[in-house]
Structure formats: C-alpha cells, structure tokens
Amino acid sequence: MDIDFALAPGEGLPLDLYRRLHAAGPVVWNETLGGWAVSGYAAVREVFGDVMRFTSAGTPVAEALGEQGMVGNDTPMHHTIRGVWAKQVGIAAQE
C-alpha cells in the first residue's frame, strides 16, 4: 500500500488515508515510508511494547530524523525526548 502521509501546513490530519490504511489490515508494507505501517490500537501497542522484535532503526524515517528523533528512536532516549515534549502539551509521559 503506497500512502504518503506528508502534509502541507494547514491541511490537518489525513483521516481518509488513515481509514484506507486501517481497512487494508493491521500491518501493511508502505513503499513511501520504506517500512511497515501498523494500525489499530492493539497492534500498535504490541509493536511499541516490544523493541526487541520491532524497530525503526535503519528505516528512511529514522535515518532522516537522526538518532535524536523521537519517532525513529526505540531506545530509552525515546522516553526522555517524549517526556520533554509531553510536559509542553500536558501529557503524562509513560516509562
């Protein structure tokens, strides 16, 4: 499934794209991302909760963001970065 989630400023969330992704299944290959796209609460929780089996390392997104990027970082640094961001928007960081 080839979905480009890039947004121009002011476009908002691409809900129609998320609906297509979710309808395709909980895990689908995305050529644009160069990796697997995971949808659905249970599948996402499983992936995020098991960094020994699932990683963002080496993907185009992780490479573009560098080792300090929160989205592509599976190490404890992710929680450190998320904690700083979460405080700014009032979200409790989970470790």
Provide keyphrases for this structure:
single chain, 95 residues, mainly alpha, 39% helix
Explain the overall architecture:
- Strand 1 (27-30) and strand 2 form a beta hairpin.
- The protein has a two-stranded antiparallel ribbon.
- It is built from 4 helices and 2 strands, in the order αββααα.
- Helix content is 39%, strand content 8%.
- The protein is globular and about 35 Å long.
- The model has no long low-confidence stretch (mean pLDDT 75).
- The protein is mostly helical and 95 residues long.
Short summary:
This protein has helices at residues 15-24, 41-48, 60-65, 77-89, and strands spanning 27-30, 35-38. By secondary structure, the protein is mainly alpha-helical.
Question: Layout of SSEs?
Answer:
Elements: H1 15-24, E1 27-30, E2 35-38, H2 41-48, H3 60-65, H4 77-89
Antiparallel strand pairs: 1-2
